[in-house]
From TrEMBL:
Organism (species): Lactuca virosa
One of the GO BP terms on file: RNA modification
Alphabetical list of InterPro entries matching this protein: PPR_At4g14850-like_plant (IPR046960), PPR_rpt (IPR002885), TPR-like_helical_dom_sf (IPR011990)
Entry protein name: Pentacotripeptide-repeat region of PRORP domain-containing protein
Superkingdom, taxonomy of origin: Eukaryota
UniProtKB keywords: Repeat
Entry's Gene Ontology molecular function annotations: RNA binding
Pfam families given in the database record: PPR, PPR_2
Residue spans of the PPR repeats: 73-107, 174-208
Length: 313
């Protein structure tokens, strides 16, 4: 019995809704319904299911459906490559990209940014250079997302010369471009370059965002500039109206801990209005160990355990 024409757009719309709302419960019900109605074999619906499961961070389900799809489009490859990369499954992302190349699938402007992110995450600077060639050979050298990803890849890989070269050649820089370049310098404690870039960015009328200040605070932490870091942290809140998130607090805790101001770091953690994660607590415990304050770390860990339990109940 042929599939009614209305079913494909109907399920497509509902699956798009699941993606936009990240509603896994409804997604699973819809998936079951596509099987019952016989449309789950349709490549377009399979592509939508892969996309929806990927957005909901269900990579096993997405991978299984992908493997069952006969006609794997560029969109389908892009979706799963991006999903692996966004959840830090960098090796899986690169394996799938290589499979895409072997299948001779055409690349579009959405293909390479998550690949470059995975190259930075592994890290795989040599592969990243090859991907850089693909960016230009496929005509994506004017696409800001691809160029920003190149800056990030080179910066995280420690090739700051190449990162700066790509950055200098970008004609229309956005806040991501500036933040990526600052982040590269910040990872290696090149504070003066970070501060200079920040002033240039603001001078160009680009409004800094949370990622910008993460890059600056990281630089201050790695460069041992505690007071400067405090100034930028206050600037972020007071002048830019940005609410600090976990990444910013983690940078501050790391920075204060490195300089021996453990009690100040503890006070900041107790006063913040977000629940600390493992990265933040790890930075705090490391600071306590470094400066011989293990009892303080143990007490804080106990308090945070109780706090998490009360939130979960």
């Amino acid at each position: 019995m042929p599939t009614p024409q209305w079913t494909i757009p109907f399920f497509s719309t509902l699956l798009d809704y699941c993606s936009s709302t990240r509603n896994l419960r409804i997604l699973k019900k819809l998936h079951a319904r596509t099987i019952i109605t016989g449309v789950s074999h349709h490549d377009f619906i399979r592509a939508k299911l892969v996309s929806s499961y990927s957005v909901c961070a269900q990579l096993l389900e997405a991978s299984i459906i992908f493997s069952l799809t006969n006609r794997r489009s560029t969109f389908l490859y892009n979706t799963l490559i991006r999903a692996f990369s966004s959840l830090n499954h960098f090796s899986d992302s690169l394996i799938l990209f290589r499979e895409m190349l072997r299948a001779h699938k055409p690349l579009d402007r959405h293909t390479l940014p998550p690949v470059l992110k995975s190259c930075a995450g592994v890290p795989a600077l040599r592969l990243g250079r090859n991907v850089h060639v693909l960016v230009f050979s496929n005509g994506f050298d004017t696409d800001v997302a691809n160029l920003n990803s190149l800056v990030t890849m080179y910066g995280k890989g420690g090739d700051l010369v190449s990162a700066q070269k790509v950055f200098d050649e970008i004609s229309e820089r956005n806040v991501v471009t500036w933040s990526a370049m600052m982040s590269g310098y910040g990872l290696y404690g090149r504070c003066e370059e970070v501060f200079e870039l920040f002033e240039r960015m603001v001078g160009d009328g680009v409004v800094p965002d949370g990622l910008t200040f993460t890059a600056i605070l990281t630089a201050c932490s790695h460069g041992g500039l505690t007071e400067k870091g405090k100034e930028y942290f206050e600037m972020m809140k007071d002048r830019c109206g940005l609410k600090p998130c976990l990444e910013h607090y983690t940078c501050m805790v790391d920075m204060l801990g490195r300089s021996g101001k453990v009690e100040e770091a503890v006070a900041m953690v107790k006063e913040m209005d977000v629940v600390p994660d493992e990265a933040l607590m790890g930075a705090l415990v490391a600071a306590c160990k470094t400066h011989g304050k293990l009892e303080l770390a143990q007490r804080l860990l106990t308090e945070m355990t109780y706090a998490r339990r009360s939130i979960s109940t």
